[in-house]
Design brief:
Blueprint: H1 2-21, E1 25-38, E2 47-59, E3 64-82, E4 85-103, E5 108-120, H2 123-130, E6 143-158, E7 161-174, E8 185-201
């Protein structure tokens, strides 16, 4: 009797998992608004950058996909506080990231991701142009390494459309500036939200 119960429960579990993950989109394209709480250097104020971009994901299996993420953030005033005084400048930020995404497809689809790539910002070079001597006469880099670790949730509202209320993560940028002893890493927070279009059913 116990053996029969175990078999029945196992069969129901397998059936439920099959139904839950039988269908998934092969490709997903997202358009989003994005906000980055950017930390340019310990000598500068942290501030929020507003922007947006797009994402493309190709799902190899019902759980694993490869994601490309492109985001851009508009120029914003930035103040550096140096021993010689303050420097006011403007700077933007762009990120280009690629990597694996693990997602549980369904009406409610949570996901996690680890993406790697590059970032571009002219905030440091603009500050250097304003007062290069205060920065040690070493021109900072416009381009650097970038990494995003995070996750989010998609909510399906139609057969091929989903809302993404939140995608959050830790965004590391490394421009290698080391200005007056500052760390080369910038530890930032990123939020994104938007709409996702899904194509190519797996069935």
């Amino acid at each position: 009797m116990k053996t029969t119960k175990v078999v029945v429960i196992a069969a129901l579990l397998m059936f439920g998992l099959t139904v839950w993950a039988a269908d998934y989109p092969k490709m997903e394209v997202a358009a989003d608004y994005s906000l980055v709480h950017f930390v340019p250097a310990k000598l500068a104020n942290t501030h929020n950058l507003n922007g947006g971009g797009g994402q493309f994901t190709y799902n190899f299996t019902k759980f694993v996909g490869l994601k490309a993420d492109f985001q851009g953030y508009g120029s914003q005033s930035q103040t550096f506080r140096l021993p010689s005084g303050t420097i006011n400048t403007n700077g933007n930020l762009f990120t280009y990231l690629f990597g694996p995404q693990i997602k549980l497809h369904g009406k409610y689809a949570p996901f996690v991701e680890t993406l790697f790539g590059a970032a571009h910002s002219n905030v440091y070079s603009n500050a250097f142009k304003t007062n290069g001597a205060a920065f040690g006469n070493v021109a900072p880099d416009n381009n650097g390494f970038a990494m995003l670790i995070g996750g989010g949730l998609d909510i399906r509202i139609a057969k091929t459309v989903a809302l993404r209320p939140a995608e959050v993560g830790y965004l590391l940028t490394r421009f290698g500036n080391n200005i007056n002893g500052t760390n080369a890493n910038q530890n930032n927070f990123r939020y994104s939200g938007g709409i996702v279009f899904q194509f190519g059913s797996s069935e």
